[in-house]
Amino acid sequence: MSAEPGTVRPGGRTARVRAAVLRAAGDVLAEQGFDRLDLADVARRAEVGKTTVYRRWGSVTGLVADLLADMAEQSSPREETGSVLGDLRANASLVQRTLADPRQGALFRAVIAAAACDERTAGALRRFYEVRVAEWAPCVEQGVARGELPAGTDARAVVRAVSAPLYYGLLTSGSVPDAAAAERAARAAHAAAAAGVFVTE
Amino acid sequence: MSAEPGTVRPGGRTARVRAAVLRAAGDVLAEQGFDRLDLADVARRAEVGKTTVYRRWGSVTGLVADLLADMAEQSSPREETGSVLGDLRANASLVQRTLADPRQGALFRAVIAAAACDERTAGALRRFYEVRVAEWAPCVEQGVARGELPAGTDARAVVRAVSAPLYYGLLTSGSVPDAAAAERAARAAHAAAAAGVFVTE
What is the pLDDT of residue B201? Predict the structure, then answer.
């Protein structure tokens, strides 16, 4: 195939530019936080024209919203282990490893902090978690179908209950979750669900 | 008693100045966030000399650390209802009402966001939660002594488990917790504790 102007597949180049820009944006967020995020700096790091970045993302909040959309698309599919406790353990372990990873953990802390004072970032973050919770909810639904959890269990509430203590410790006390915390989070959510705490009318 | 200079009780005046300055600092945090906190602005709002504020608190992070220390001192004592589930419900309700209060909820979100990028604020926030968790832990210890929960239950872990879903929803999805969320949080922590999830060796 020739690579003359006009014959380059636009999807290919556009996707490469997006990947480079989002990678650079994530690096700045993880290293320096939301307040230091600057489109010109991101363009320089990504080796992409400043005009392209301004035209495509428009603002820092637009860039963070796209980063979160990309993270939701790229993130791991759910695991199915055959039991709801096993699946919740797999979910807890995934969340724990993400938060304990230096780059990813710092990135999430930066975005959550930004969401506290920026409505657009808050909306993008909310959508990110909706996608992730929806990805894992079928594990709980299958557990209900197999009779491991009571009928009427709110599957999304159970998935959120697994994440809650891992994020809470990190955000309020700076304690990076370890494997034991993940195991406790999965078992706690499972015990509460088994006791019918998440049954809705 | 005369009120000549030198005879005014220093505790009285100092305490009044501190209360006015911390009130003003909390107002700015709740209304505008950590980034807008400025010692000169706080002094003006509190009707206190700028020099006094600079000399006593030194920096914005010093001021926030003192605000958190004051919040820990001022916050409500634990309730004792006679059962561990009742006590956890009382704790969940207190946390829920705090986070749902417009001023307090905004203040906590601002301080948690600031803790993500400032080490001194992170330390002050961690100490705040240590004080609050230590205040409520005896409810769980009494529950263990009464045989309502298994021996070896980590009382602080149970108290933290009550708060976790309430904070998690607010911080990651902007969902202000309601009374139903508080009830679910208390019951989930209780069910997990009763199942032995928080027993440590």
Answer: 67
- Clarify whether residues B62 and B83 are in a common domain: no
Nearest to A161 among B125, B167, B188 (CB): B188
Report yes or no on B33 lying in a domain: yes
Residues B113 and B48 in one domain: no
pLDDT computed for residue A35 by the predictor = 87
Query: What's the pTM value of the predicted model, to 2 decimals?
Result: 0.92
Q: Which residue of A lies nearest to B159 if distances are taken between CA atoms?
A: A165
Taking an 8 Å cut-off on Cβ atoms, the answer to whether A117 and B125 are in contact is no
If asked whether residues A133 and A175 sit together in one domain, one would say: yes
CA dihedral B98, B104, B109, B111 (to 10 degrees): -120
Q: Are A117 and B113 in contact (CB under 8 A)?
A: yes
Q: Which residues of A touch B191 (CB under 8 A)?
A: 191-192, 194-195, 197
Task: Using the 3D structure, point to which of A71, A88, A106 is the last residue of a domain.
Answer: A71
Tokens of A11: 């999807």
Are A188 and B165 within 8 A, CB to CB? no
Per-residue pLDDT tens over the stretch A125-172: 999 999 999 999 999 999 999 999 999 999 999 999 999 999 999 999
The residue range of the domain holding A66 is: 12-71
Q: Are A139 and A190 within 8 A, CB to CB? A: no
